[in-house]
Amino acid sequence: MLRLAAATLAAVGLSGPAIAHAQVIGPDVASYQHPSGFSIDWGAANATGGAAFAFVKATEGTGYTNPYFRGDFAAVHARGMARGAYHFARPSLAGGSATAQADYFVRVAGKLGARGDLPPVLDLEVTGGLKPAQLTAWVSTWLKRVKATTGRTPMVYVSPYFWTHSMGNSTAFRSYYLWVASWSSRPPTALPGGWSRYTFWQYTNAGKVAGISGRVDLSAFNGTVAALWALANGAPAPVPAPAPTPSPVPAPAPAPAPVPAPAPTPAPAPTPEPSPSPAPAPAPAPSPSYSELSRLDLIRALYQQSRSTLEPGASGAGVAAAQQVLGLPRTGTFTPSMAASLLAWQRSHGVHAAGVLDPRTWWAMIAVTHRQHHHRND
C-alpha cells in the first residue's frame, strides 16, 4: 500500500490535506463544479489529476436533476474511470416520499448495471424535521426500494455525527456500504452504526483536482484498484497502454579525420569583478486572507461546513466564513482569540458554549446570516 504525501498529490495535479494511507482517490461533483457553465476536463482529472473514480450528483428530492449529470457521467466512463451516482435525500413525512425519491433517482441514474458503475448512493445530510425513528424508517425504505429496482446494494454517505445524533446510531444498516464523511488527515477509527469498515472515506471538502474548477470533495477508496473495479460490477481494472517500441537507430556514418586546431592565442588577464553587494533580505510572506463573501455565498460556505467540527488550530475557507460571521479579520486560521470570540457569540445566541465550530454552531450561523439577508431585502 502506497503512502501518499501532500507533495505527491500536488505532483499529479490532485491536492488536499495529506492523508496517511491514500490508495485510490477520486472526487465527487455536482453543478457547483460548473460555475458559469465551466466544463470539467475529465481527461485532465484522470491523466494529470490521478483520479481513479468520480461520483456525480444525479438528483435531489423528486424535483431536481443535476443538469450536468448525464454529460459528466458519460465523460467519466469514457475516460476509463469508475463512476458512481448519488441522490441528495430530502426526507419528509409525506406518504410515499422515500419510495418516490428512490424511483426518481433510478429514472435519472438508471440501474447502474454497466461495467464500471459503482453502487447507487444515498447522500444523507438533512433530517427534514424527522425524528431518529422516523428518519431510520425513511432511509430503510429508500435503500430497499433502490436495491429492489436496480439489483445493486446501495451505499450510504453520512458523517458519524449525523448518524449518531439524527439516526439514533442505528445498527440496522450494516449490510449496506458506508461512505463516511470525516474531514481529517487520518481515517476515522470509530465508525457509527456498528459498521466495521468503510468503503469510501471523504477526507476533505477543499481538494484541488486538475481539470475541475475551484475546490472539490475528495474521497479515498478502502482497497486496491482491483478491488475498486470489482465493486464496479466486476469490471477489470484498466490496463495502461504499453510504451511504444523504439524504432532501430541507423549506425552513424564514420566521422571525418580531425583537422589540427590552430595554436591557441593567450587569453588576456581577467579584469577583477567588483565584490557583489549583499542580497536584500526576502520580504516576509504575506499572511493568507480571504475575500468577504456575499450573504448568499456566505450561507453556501457555512452549509458546506455544517457537518464538520473545527477546533482551534484548524485553517481554511470554513474558518474564514465563521470569522466573517463573527466580525473578525478573515485570516482563515482558528486562533485562541477567535475561540474566545466564538465562545461569546455562542453564549449570546443561545448555542451551547463550547468554543468550537460544530454542526449546531454552523447551523446557528446559517440561521443568523439568513435572517440578516432577508432583513436587508425587506
What does the model show?
By secondary structure, this protein is of the alpha/beta class. Strands 2-3-5-6-7-8-9-10 form an eight-stranded mixed β-barrel, surrounded by five helices. It is 32% helix and 14% strand. It starts with 5 loop residues before the first helix and ends with a helix. It has two domains: 209 residues, TIM Barrel (Alpha-Beta Barrel), CATH 3.20.20.80; 78 residues, Orthogonal Bundle (Muramoyl-pentapeptide Carboxypeptidase, domain 1), CATH 1.10.101. Helix 8 packs across helix 9. The N terminus and C terminus are likely disordered.
Largest sheet: 8 strands, mixed, barrel
The dominant shape is globular
Return the CATH topology of the largest domain: TIM Barrel
CA-CA gap between termini: 57 Å
Evaluate the radius of gyration.
27 Å
Assign the CATH class of the largest domain: Alpha Beta
Number of strands: 10
Task: Kindly name the structural category.
Answer: alpha/beta
Q: What integer is the average pLDDT?
A: 83
Range of helix content: 25-40%
Total of DSSP H or I helical runs spanning 4+ residues: 11
The H/E string reads HEEHEEHEHEHEHEEEHHHHH
